[in-house]
């Protein structure tokens, strides 16, 4: 069956460290993968998109990798700040129609 | 760009009642999506429209759920005969859907439904 899995346990790190979040998928062959941030009581906000032919994508302190052989994406936040505390969702398009399927999200807590 | 707006933000209803939610997408976006999210889970796809055409509806979606997008602008999601299991956050999103269909989704802040 098709699955998208993210670490269900919250990730707690110290301010200034690098946070690494994992997204694994099975029985999909997505052309691209997206990452979103969600704060409590709010809708998800788009962060980054990475295509299947891209190994890595960066935006400011954010970096995403995409390994289609391992069927895994890693999301890194460098020099983390308490304001980065949120839930991060990975999402992929299972049918190349623009309809996204989301993982369950990983909650990141950055402590000062 | 005023963003995606949803109304109401919160709705409390008694089991068995009907409820209707509204979503106003970003004006130039031709695609509109409805998702449902429960605590600790990611958004779960319900249905989506391209302009006024409903292109897909989740097989998990009960017949009690119906969505419309008249004239390809705003959309409504109606739940008939609500059940306690319908309690969730209902999220609407829009995008500029054109091949290769990889535009990000722009989400509203959702309608939180509580069925008592």
Q: Could you walk me through the main structural features you see in this protein, from its secondary elements to its overall organization?
A:
- Chain A is globular.
- Chain A has 112 residues and is mostly beta strands.
- Chain A has strands at residues 3-6, 11-14, 19-26, 32-38, 45-51, 56-59, 62-67, 72-77, 86-93, 100-102, 106-111.
- Chain A has no helices and eleven strands.
- Chain A is 0% helix and 56% strand.
- With 116 residues, chain B is an all-beta fold.
- The relative contact order of chain B is 0.33.
- Chain B is globular, with a radius of gyration of 14 Å.
- Chain B starts with a strand and ends with a strand.
- Chains A and B meet through strand 5, strand 9 and strand 10 of A and strand 4, strand 5, strand 9 and strand 10 of B.
Nearest-angstrom radius of gyration of chain B?
14 Å
Instruction: Give the chain pair forming the largest contact, with residue counts.
Output: A-B, 27 and 29 residues
pLDDT average of chain A, as an integer?
Answer: 94
**Major pleated sheet of chain A:** 6 strands, mixed
Proportion of residues in β-strands of chain A: over 45%
Instruction: Give the total of beta strands of chain A.
Output: 11
Q: SS-based structural class of chain B?
A: mainly beta
Number of contiguous helices of chain A: 0
Distance between the termini of chain A: 41 Å
Number of strands of chain B: 11
Q: Please state the average pLDDT score of chain B.
A: 94
Helical stretch count of chain B?
Answer: 0
Q: Summarize the main sheet of chain B.
A: 7 strands, mixed
């Amino acid at each position: 069956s098709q699955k998208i899995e993210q670490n269900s346990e919250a990730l707690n790190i110290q301010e200034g460290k690098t946070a690494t979040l994992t997204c694994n998928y099975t029985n999909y062959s997505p052309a691209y993968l997206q990452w979103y941030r969600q704060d409590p009581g709010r809708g998800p906000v788009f962060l980054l998109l990475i295509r299947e032919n891209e190994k890595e994508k960066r935006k400011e302190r954010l970096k995403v990798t995409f390994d289609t052989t391992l069927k895994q994406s890693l999301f890194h936040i460098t020099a983390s700040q308490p304001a980065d505390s949120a839930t991060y969702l990975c999402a992929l398009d299972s049918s190349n129609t623009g309809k996204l399927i989301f993982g369950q999200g990983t909650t990141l807590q950055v402590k000062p | 760009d005023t963003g995606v707006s949803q109304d109401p933000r919160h709705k409390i209803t008694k089991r068995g009642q009907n409820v209707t939610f509204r979503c106003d997408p970003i004006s130039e976006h031709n695609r509109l999506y409805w998702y449902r999210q429960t605590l600790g889970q990611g958004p779960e796809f319900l249905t989506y429209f391209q302009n006024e055409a409903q292109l897909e509806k989740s097989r998990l979606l009960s017949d009690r759920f119906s969505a419309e997008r008249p004239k390809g602008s705003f959309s409504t999601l109606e739940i008939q005969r609500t059940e306690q299991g319908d309690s969730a956050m209902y999220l609407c999103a829009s995008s500029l859907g054109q091949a290769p269909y990889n535009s990000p989704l722009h989400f509203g802040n959702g309608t939180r439904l509580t069925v008592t």
